[in-house]
Amino acid sequence: MFLPRKRYHQAMSASLRIALAQLNLFVGDVAGNAQRLIDTAAQARDELQADLVLFPELSLSGYPPEDLLFHSGLRRQVKTALDRVRQETSGITVVAGYPEYADEGIYNAAAVLRDGATVANYRKQELPNYSVFDEKRYFKHGRDTCIFELKGIRVALLICEDIWEPNPARAAKANGAQLIVVINGSPYSLRYQERREAAVRARVKDTGLPVVYVNLLGGQDELVFDGGSFVMNASGEVVQRVAPFVEGLFAVDVDLVDGKVVPRPAHVEPPLSEEASVYNALVLGVRDYVGKHRFPGIVLGLSGGIDSALTLAIAVDALGAERVSAVMMPSRYTSQWSLDDAAAEARTLGVRYDVISIEGMFATALDALKDVFAGRQPDTTEENIQARSRGLLLMAISNKTGRMVLTTGNKSEMAVGYATLYGDMAGGFAPIKDCSKMLVYRLAKYRNSVSHAIPNRVIERPPSAELRHDQKDSDSLPEYDVLDAILELFIEDNLSVDEIAARGFDRATVGRVLEMVKRNEYKRRQAPPGVRISDRAFGRDWRYPITSGYKSKI
């Protein structure tokens, strides 16, 4: 939608205050999201004296709404909610993202509202259809530039992917825009803030226009939205950056001087370390998954190993100790070290801690199967019976208490199938599912740098599933530093056996690892969702066939 151009005066000077609403919204809760917008707009007007408030992409429906968009009930609710926001906000201009239903299809849109009227409406032009995004399944492409005027400043409105491509911003500049505002639903992955700012810097270089960027916050299934809203001036410098993983309303001041918009410098939040960034994403993902599903709390199996120790710390930081229960389930193979370390972790973090032996269940199962197993040597079958005994106990506790089971497996294990279906994979959510084993160690050390939560021995001793005598993970897998490096080249970079071997890895080891990844796709399809922190997580990002004749070793 175009508004008529004004004639500018060389000496024109004006100021505009913009409120960035970095909010944690709820997919599908259209009425609740509408109320958040109404309340936040009033706060921006009364407390910040803002002229304009920017809400994230699809803020009314929540992002991503996925196939809810096809439901006629959502369509009716969105219309009612948008009418409410329009009628119940005044004294401030509001930019609200919403799905716009038209005769020809659905648009990812944003409405510019002021005092009961729709000042302008914009339809997203660039629709991402890669990685976790499949917007072309749902939305039609918008075609038109949207510029609205506020306090003498001509503001162009874009939505998320529009800023990653050159044409929408160039068209805005060509049509007289002096400032670009972008509303976003940009999910977290490691180092992604750098890429967001690089993309915006490229558009600033193209157009010479400053950009105000607001991003969504919160966990939604596998995705975490980290906020990190920012302002970039016409020289490509970040002059204001909001803290990531923090909900809030933040004021941005811009001045119009001699026809050019100049953002005022404000607080620039320094970037987090990689470990702090990932840890915050995991905490937020767990908090929102448990909270938005209204579980009273969680229960997890605490083995005395590194993975469950880190998961316990994440759960406590996300939910508070009173909502977390830990259960140690020893067998004949559980070491005294594990018993001592698990008890120490639970005591340090202040959670309920129960010890329930699986020895009786394990022995009973072996006795029941002795005739069927006669003449066959013990193997992973007996190991899996132990894991499934533990899964049975945890699910029983979950059923009885209403607390959801958190699983504790990491990405390295999930990649090669070093996990038991209906055993340690049984649960509702998998916090460290996308964290490699080496990253788990880094995160544990980071968490201990904040306050000591994980015994040093857990971090230092060789990892073991303790499902047979003197077992170590390295009996079945390459050392984790080697395994993780191979997996990253395959999963993130899509390299072949020969290409990975050319990087200096043993070709037989590479072939074995890639075959394990292929062979265990059926397990990953049955795994619970977990927080995505990489560019290629098992889930939305990973769509390999279960049944395949592809030979990775050729």
UniProtKB/TrEMBL annotation:
GO terms for molecular function: ATP binding; glutaminase activity; NAD+ synthase (glutamine-hydrolyzing) activity; NAD+ synthase activity. InterPro entries: C-N_Hydrolase, C-N_Hydrolase_sf, Gln-dep_NAD_synthase, NAD/GMP_synthase, NAD_synthase, Rossmann-like_a/b/a_fold. Residues 16-256 form the CN hydrolase domain. It catalyses: deamido-NAD(+) + L-glutamine + ATP + H2O = L-glutamate + AMP + diphosphate + NAD(+) + H(+). GO terms for cellular component: cytoplasm. Keywords: ATP-binding, Ligase, NAD, Nucleotide-binding. Pathway: Cofactor biosynthesis; NAD(+) biosynthesis; NAD(+) from deamido-NAD(+) (L-Gln route): step 1/1. The keyword Repeat does not apply. L-glutamine binds at residues 130, 186. ATP binds at residues 301-308, 408. The keyword DNA repair does not apply. The active site is at 57 (proton acceptor), 124 (for glutaminase activity), 160 (nucleophile). Deamido-NAD(+) binds at residues 384, 413, 523. One of its GO terms (biological process) is NAD+ biosynthetic process. SUPFAM superfamilies: Adenine nucleotide alpha hydrolases-like, Carbon-nitrogen hydrolase. Its EC number is 6.3.5.1. It comes from the Bacteria. Pfam families: CN_hydrolase (PF00795), NAD_synthase (PF02540). It is an enzyme of class 6 (ligase). In the C-terminal section; belongs to the NAD synthetase family. Belongs to the NAD synthetase family. HAMAP family: NadE_glutamine_dep (MF_02090). Catalyzes the ATP-dependent amidation of deamido-NAD to form NAD. Uses L-glutamine as a nitrogen source. PANTHER family: GLUTAMINE-DEPENDENT NAD(+) SYNTHETASE (PTHR23090:SF9), NH 3 /GLUTAMINE-DEPENDENT NAD + SYNTHETASE (PTHR23090). This is Glutamine-dependent NAD(+) synthetase. It comes from Steroidobacter agaridevorans.
